[in-house]
C-alpha cells in the first residue's frame, strides 16, 4: 500500500496490481492505521484508490485461506483487520474520497460504500461477491449497503453476487458519479479542491452527527445534532465564516 501526502491530502493507493489489488490482512491493518492517524489539523481529505486497472478485487482468498484454529481466533482476526478498517473510516473526522479507477469487488466494494464521497471510472465493475465464496458481506457491507442503496437493492446484490457497471452503481448511489476514465483524476481533484476551502473540523462534526444518528430515534438524533452544533458555533471556523460573509470575502479557515 502506497501513501502519498501532499498539500494537505493523504492519497492511499492499493499497490498489488498483479493481484488486482486484492487485500491481505496486513494491508487492512495498514489502511486502518493510516486513517486512524489522520487529523483535521494535518489533512483536508483522504483519497483511496488502486494502482493499475483495479480499485480492489476484495480480500485475497489465498492469503485469507489460512483458517484460524478456533472460532474465537477467527472473530479476533476479522475484527482486528477488516473490522478495524470499518471503524477507522466511519470515525475518521477527515473526509474520505474513493477514486474507483477500476473493479471494486467484495471488500473493495465495501470500502467504496464506507467512503464519504466516491467517483468511479465508467468502465469499473462492481460486485458484492461474498456469496460466491460462501461468505456474508464484511468490511461493513451488511451495515453500509442498506444505508446507502436501500434494503431491497442491498439484498439483491448480496444474495446474487451479480456484477454490475459504474452507471448502475451511480443510479444506486453507491458512487456519486460515473465518469470517463480520462476525466476521473480531474473530477476527484475538483472535489478535493473544494474540501481544501472548507473547515475540516466542521466537516468532521457533520460526519460524526450523520453516522451516530443513523440508528437513533429522531428525537435523540436532533438532540445530538444540537449538541454538535453548539460545538460548531463556538469554533474559530464559525467566527471566521460569519466575518467573511459580512465582509463580502472568501473565508480563510484554520482547518
TrEMBL record:
PANTHER family, sorted: EG:BACN32G11.4 PROTEIN (PTHR43459:SF1), ENOYL-COA HYDRATASE (PTHR43459)
Protein name: Enoyl-CoA hydratase/isomerase family protein
Gene3D superfamilies, A to Z: 2-enoyl-CoA Hydratase, Chain A, domain 1 (3.90.226.10), Lyase 2-enoyl-coa Hydratase, Chain A, domain 2 (1.10.12.10)
Keywords noted in UniProt: Isomerase
InterPro entries from the UniProt entry: ClpP/crotonase-like_dom_sf, Enoyl-CoA_hydra/iso, Enoyl-CoA_hydra_C
One Pfam assignment: ECH_1
GO molecular function: isomerase activity
SUPFAM superfamilies: ClpP/crotonase
Amino acid at each position: 500500500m502506497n501513501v502519498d501526502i501532499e498539500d494537505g491530502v493523504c492519497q492511499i493507493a492499493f499497490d498489488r496490481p498483479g493481484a488486482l489489488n486484492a487485500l491481505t490482512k496486513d494491508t487492512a491493518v495498514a489502511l486502518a492505521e493510516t486513517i486512524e492517524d489522520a487529523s483535521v489539523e494535518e489533512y483536508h481529505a483522504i483519497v483511496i484508490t488502486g494502482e493499475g486497472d483495479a480499485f480492489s478485487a476484495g480480500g485475497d482468498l489465498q492469503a485469507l485461506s489460512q483458517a484460524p484454529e478456533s472460532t474465537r481466533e477467527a472473530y479476533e482476526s476479522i475484527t482486528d483487520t477488516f473490522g478495524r478498517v470499518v471503524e477507522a473510516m466511519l470515525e475518521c473526522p477527515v473526509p474520505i474520497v474513493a477514486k474507483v479507477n477500476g473493479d471494486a469487488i467484495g471488500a473493495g466494494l465495501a470500502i467504496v460504500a464506507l467512503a464519504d464521497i466516491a467517483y468511479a471510472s465508467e468502465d469499473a465493475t462492481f460486485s458484492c461477491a461474498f456469496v460466491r465464496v460462501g461468505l456474508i458481506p464484511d468490511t461493513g457491507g451488511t451495515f453500509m449497503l442498506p444505508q446507502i442503496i436501500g434494503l431491497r437493492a442491498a439484498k439483491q446484490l448480496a444474495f446474487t453476487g451479480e456484477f454490475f457497471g459504474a452507471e448502475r452503481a451511480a443510479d444506486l448511489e453507491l458512487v456519486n458519479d460515473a465518469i470517463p476514465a480520462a476525466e476521473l483524476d480531474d473530477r476527484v481533484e475538483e472535489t478535493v479542491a473544494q474540501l481544501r476551502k472548507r473547515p475540516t473540523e466542521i466537516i468532521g462534526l457533520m460526519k460524526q452527527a450523520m453516522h451516530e444518528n443513523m440508528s437513533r430515534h429522531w428525537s435523540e438524533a436532533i438532540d445530538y445534532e444540537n449538541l454538535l452544533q453548539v460545538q460548531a458555533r463556538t469554533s474559530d471556523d464559525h467566527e471566521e465564516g460569519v466575518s467573511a460573509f459580512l465582509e463580502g470575502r472568501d473565508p480563510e479557515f484554520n482547518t
